[in-house]
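Page 42, continued from yesterday. The earlier attempt failed because a stray header line got pasted into the input along with the sequence. Redoing it now with the clean sequence only.
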Amino acid sequence: MAGDDAFLESLTESSLYSIGASFCDRSPELVDDLLEQGAAIERAGLDAWAAQQDVSVESAFQTLVTGLAVRYYTAVAGTG
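This time it went through. Structure tokens are written below.
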């Protein structure tokens, strides 16, 4: 449907999509690790995961957001 194509195209114009695409293009060998870390952060929570990994909460948040961006990109682009 034409409306669906326009909607899907609009999704590629977001910052989240761009972040995910950039990460996948620049570091394809790290995608699986990033997604695993993101899932671990979701399960444990930012503060707890950061403490377990001995990283700042800000670093944990950046990892989480980048993982979400990669998931968003792969869902929209149909890759992965």
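Notes: The chain has a mean pLDDT of 90.
Reminder to self: strip header lines before submitting.
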